[in-house]
Amino acid sequence: MKIQLNGEEKEIAATTVAQLIAELGLETRMLAVECDLEVVAKSAYATTALKEGNRIEIVHMIGGG
Amino acid sequence: MSKDMFKVGSYEFTSRLIVGSGKYKDFETTKLATEAADAEMITVAVRRVNITEADKENLLDYIDPKKYTILPNTAGCFNAEDAIRTLRLAREAGGWDLVKLEVLGDTQTLYPNVVETIKAAEVLVKEGFQVMVYTNDDPIVATRLEEIGCVAVMPLGNPIGSGRGLANPFNIRVIKERANVPIVVDAGIGTASDAAKSMELGADAVLINTAIAEAKNECLMAEAMRDAVRGGRKAFLAGRMQKRAFASASSPSEGYIWD
Q1: Which residue from B132, B144, B176, B221 has the fewest beta carbons nearer than 10 Å?
Q2: What is the CA radius of gyration of chain B?
Q3: Using the beta-carbon criterion (under 8 Å), do B49 and A31 form an inter-chain contact?
Q4: In chain A, which residues have their Cβ closer than 8 Å to the Cβ of B89?
Q5: Is residue B49 within 8 Å of residue A6, measured between CB atoms?
Q6: Cβ(B182)–Cβ(B7) under 8 Å?
Q7: pTM, whole model, 2 decimals?
Q8: Of A30, A39, A61, the CB nearest to B88
Q9: Is B100 tagged catalytic?
Q10: How far apart are CA B222 and CA B229, in angstroms?
Q11: Which of B100, B119, B176, B197 is catalytic?
Q12: Quick check: B152 pLDDT over 80?
């Protein structure tokens, strides 16, 4: 299905947030996920189903002042 | 003397120098300068992961969140909504509740948008965040932010990244004297004397990024800032002498050989 991932349209095989993170190879990263403007708790990754057109943001920490 | 701790919300630090992690030429330098500064708290920004470079190394591979208190910021946010979203994500990412709120007005001055800052602070405090808030050097706004429940108020010395020192030292003192929460001078510090001056005015801590990251020798400047903050703090605690209009001889005015 197609989702909006970090501002760009992307075709994915994953059907849950946990699967998406694995598909992207980000399992070991300290990150956070937002689905349609709502934060997805880490404990809910496996149970949060993705739907066509979801707006997903995946963020991490970078240098900043 | 009992240990002079820097208390912010439920946190306690020995170091009164908070550092930023932006603008460094590489992660290794960030790490070494942060160590040289003897910092215990370091700010980070929250940004989209570059999904095409998932295996690229990350700041937190160098700055260990077990060793340092990570202070996520809202740099680049120009309204309350974006700042709140950003910090909710940061809290989920690392479990951090101590955060730096900054909502900016425009890209040229990077001055705070105080109206949006207040809106964001109200929501974040209600959601249980311990908010350290970047703001103008305005005593009235500082008091308002304290009333909202922010755990520290962080007035600017001068615009972010300008290195121009303290534009209005008197206001920093006024803000400090009225405050019941820690006051942190954030932004504008250019060199060691600016940091020392901030501490002499009574600031509880300073937050420095560009002045260290853009120094020719980052680690040496980090040490200079560390020493300046310690010196300034001690001078503040010691209580400075009164200034006089005229001279006052340091040697006794008696027992001269010609008397």
Answers
A1: B144
A2: 20
A3: yes
A4: 32, 34, 39, 57, 59
A5: yes
A6: yes
A7: 0.92
A8: A39
A9: yes
A10: 11
A11: B100
A12: yes
